[in-house]
Amino acid sequence: MGSIETILKKVLGVGIIGCGEVCQTVHLPTLGHLSDYFQVTYLCDVSSDALRHCKKKVAGQEPETTRDVAKLCASPSVDVVFITNSNEYHAAHAIIALQHNKHVLLEKPASITIRDADAIIAAESKSHGKVFVGYMRRYAAAFVDAIEEIGGVEKILYARVRDIIGPNSIFVDQSGTFPKKFSDFAPADTEDITNRNTELLTQALEVECGVEQTDETKRFWRILGGLGSHDLSAMREALGMPTSVKGVSYNFPFWNVLFQYPGFAVSYESGMDQVPRFDAHIEIYSAKKTVRVQYDTPYVKGLPTTLHICENVDGAYKESMIRRTYEDAYTLEIMELYKMIVEGKQIKTTAADAKKDLEIFGMIMKAGFPVLDTSKIKSNGDAVQSGRG
């Protein structure tokens, strides 16, 4: 007879929608390592080749596969749905999962528009399932410790959020997961994602932000929803919401934003180049202490996130580097998901929390780009369509 811990432990069935790079590089390996807690039971993708490839990568039992999102979400073998496909489908597929009373791990961005964020929140309020948005940086042990350090400083004078990285392919190729890309998409699927992208960007930029839709604004909105959402979500938890945006410089592939907070400013600097390094951190300055959380690429498992503290101790300079654990942020995040589902633990990365990112994106766009003639804006309040796999 097993121990009480073994008897009480529930292994959650996981259905994954989207078998692309993040699924192959991050979620399948992490869930495989956490086999005492999770078992992948179902996979869904519009690519049959991706399904065949990922099916072989699942640890434990062989999962079922489908191209039908609703079929996966309706399965009794699925307790939680991981949504890791294209951003255009995040909201639609989260709502289908919630309608089937499933819990959801929703990769960021949770949605591309405030309209769809509200639709997710409304669906969650009617469901037995809960939404957990995948901001893994906020679950890193060093970040959690930094929040306590920041809360103890007398007054924040300045802060910097920095995220300058080399080509993602370099890190992915060195991850040891050997992900593959597939292109066996039906014409109808390609047309559907194109139409969705067009509608969502029109809703986000013209209707909700009131800025002109250009190649530049569309690209920046996608960047904010991708790399930027990690940075700005962490900034929100550490410092709260900014009161305004003082300036924006967008010179792709680099950009800068100056946020105003009560009594201090925050400089957000980010960009992508061809240098194979990953420099992402958030740093807070006070009169006698500086606190920095330093991140490395999440695609190479086990690289530590570290906490750096520089301070004045009785007139002497003291510098500390703290690495509480080698557990990576994705592992820590998914274990928090488990506690939410099994133990009922309250989590911080909710759908309502994720909506605040979109509010900050809107502040940035309005401060940095030409405002659209409001007489040309057409409101679109239609609900999110169910979408394809």
UniProtKB/TrEMBL annotation:
| Biological-process GO terms, alphabetical | NADPH regeneration
Per the record, its GO cellular-component terms are: cytoplasm
Looking up InterPro entries in the UniProt record yields: Gfo/Idh/MocA-like_OxRdtase_N, NAD(P)-bd_dom_sf
In its UniProt record, a GO molecular function of this protein is:
oxidoreductase activity
Lineage, top-rank taxon, reads Eukaryota
Q: Where are the transmembrane segments?
A: none
Q: Where is the Gfo/Idh/MocA-like oxidoreductase N-terminal domain?
A: 13-135
Which named protein is this? Gfo/Idh/MocA-like oxidoreductase N-terminal domain-containing protein
- Origin species, per record, is Phialocephala subalpina
Its taxonomic path starts at: Eukaryota, Fungi, Dikarya, Ascomycota, Pezizomycotina
